[in-house]
Amino acid sequence: MISKFMAPEIIFGDHSIQQTGESFLRLGAQRVLVVSDPGVKEAGWTAEAVESIQTSGLDYHLFSNISTNPDTAQVAEGAAAYHKARCDAVLGIGGGSALDVAKAVAVIVSNGGKIENYEGVDHIHSPLPPVIMVPTTAGSGSEVSQFSIIVDPARKKKMTIVSKSLVPDIAIVDPFVLMTKDHLLTAATGLDAITHGIEAYVSAAATPLTDVQAVNAMKLAAEFLRPSVASHTNVEAKRAMAMASMQAGLAFSNAILGAVHAMSHAIGGRYALPHGEINSILLPHVMEFNLIASPSRFAAIGDIFGASAGGEEMVRARHGIQAVRALADDIGAPKTLHSVGLRDPDFESMARIALEDACMITNPRDVALKDIEMLFKKAYE
Amino acid sequence: MISKFMAPEIIFGDHSIQQTGESFLRLGAQRVLVVSDPGVKEAGWTAEAVESIQTSGLDYHLFSNISTNPDTAQVAEGAAAYHKARCDAVLGIGGGSALDVAKAVAVIVSNGGKIENYEGVDHIHSPLPPVIMVPTTAGSGSEVSQFSIIVDPARKKKMTIVSKSLVPDIAIVDPFVLMTKDHLLTAATGLDAITHGIEAYVSAAATPLTDVQAVNAMKLAAEFLRPSVASHTNVEAKRAMAMASMQAGLAFSNAILGAVHAMSHAIGGRYALPHGEINSILLPHVMEFNLIASPSRFAAIGDIFGASAGGEEMVRARHGIQAVRALADDIGAPKTLHSVGLRDPDFESMARIALEDACMITNPRDVALKDIEMLFKKAYE
């Protein structure tokens, strides 16, 4: 088997956000479209990145009309802003939503058309303008991944766009930026990172290169997500979770994901629910379903999450699932789809959408429509 | 502390050499300068890469005047061949020597002047043409690194050239290519990879991102270097050593190295001795010297190389040094500089050169001139 691995240049560390301007200078940029979201702007991080851009003698234009589960209209609006302001580079600074919109805008301004044209794998052909990402949550991994997830409201669908071109030029990961997140966002995004690590590790496309990243991400999150949720100023925990999220991103960007994400995208296309929470609700159910596909890998996950004192493979594997559940409980994650506000769901039609999602291809266990419906129902209440 | 990490796109796997042409096509190349060495040419791998280039409809020109410890004249000759044949891309296929010349040629053809002008850190300013590397030994890690090492005969010196620009666009790592190496080359290059892993792991510039690569490289080499030396057809061992070498390359490219390499470069500038063998002779002496700089890291190395059944930190660390010695012994590595042909060495002047080498900066223990002389003498006989 031939495995491929791609990563952006990575700048990781305390206050690394201040290297944003210098990094754009190095990429030859002159005028940067800054794609951010209102929360990050309010926390002051957007201003800090902008200051760095200006200090380097570069110009910028701010676009911050970003919502959770961003859609095609926001991408079109961002692309229009890019052209109108005559930008030649893109900064994504924010959570996964802002980063994914920034990527999608970079696609449109260099490849033309609508973002819907690029849904699926490898449909981007022209090089993008210089793209730098500064994540402000430890969860999405979008700063290093070849993914962008955009909602198409017309089809009530989260589109998965996958292309090597979507790997940013530079990922600037600054743990200090995580200190302004509240405990709810820290928990939801941290569980998203754990889901990335676990799905990438058991993915049908996992390789030795993705395994080292996934295993380290899981180890860090197993140790540091609880303290990170507990204290917004615990620097050690923020550093660990920033690294965990990025390493999980490197893992899933190259090993792709599985049923949790395929199902989560199906929900997210219809309901404006937080991606991380949905994932963490679905995760243990999908783990139980997938267990027989790779007992040894699930046993290793059990060892990492610390529930096991040895025993045979299937015992360690089952303990692992309980340990992930316990971690989610400890940080106050919701347990059912009903509890986060899902009402009268049409699971059959969502299952059809999930079955077609690009992430389902690498799920380690064969999945039929009725399996997905069953998993949705288990997760519902 | 801010850490940076760079890696090329990686294509890893059996028969991946056949993706050479397609990869150049993707980078927009039309006529490739193929930089190779006589041994690799004879083994047939150069022809296999060339066939892939031609199958993709691209043209090529072959330059194969490469020796061990290649020098400035070979780089100039390669650059002249590139221009004369109107090439627009560079393939390095071979051991570390061929890859390092290929990189140096790419520097000259795009930046002008002589390769001597680019000695040291970050002196390359213009972008290089598309560069792809296919390593045929599991040792140098040059396929993923930001290093090129070229001998300057005028100064009897191995120049260390370090720049992000030297990270190739694509590294194609094909374990099958390793099957034509004899056991001596397998041992020497494998010990080079181990030295990279160890020096990067204890480097003053090590980061969590380089640690995961270094640790995995050491684990793989600890388990698979012996069987790889024992059998040229053991596919599992070749796969493991190809991965180990590449991961050690990712580690040292970003964490840099230490005294072993600084001293080895000083020897290699004057004597045409194999780099891997010199490294493996110096390694245990330097490990003993460096031990007190990082007992916990050397203890972890002890655990990886399997010599330890627990015990306190310094005991595990010392066992680790013995275990590395035992591994080198088992695969028939030479034990003294005298035994590999060094005669009447002027250790004082070589120590001066080693002290100035770029690799010495990240050695974990402070080093004085007399320390290096003492280490050279210990390694001599």
Automatic annotation (TrEMBL), chains A, B:
Residues 186-380 form the Fe-containing alcohol dehydrogenase-like C-terminal domain. GO terms for molecular function: alcohol dehydrogenase (NAD+) activity; metal ion binding. Gene3D superfamilies: 3.40.50.1970, Dehydroquinate synthase-like - alpha domain. Pfam families: ADH_Fe_C, Fe-ADH. Residues 8-175 form the Alcohol dehydrogenase iron-type/glycerol dehydrogenase GldA domain. Keywords: Oxidoreductase. InterPro entries: ADH_Fe/GldA, ADH_Fe_C, Alcohol_dehydrogenase_Fe. Belongs to the iron-containing alcohol dehydrogenase family. This is 1,3-propanediol dehydrogenase.
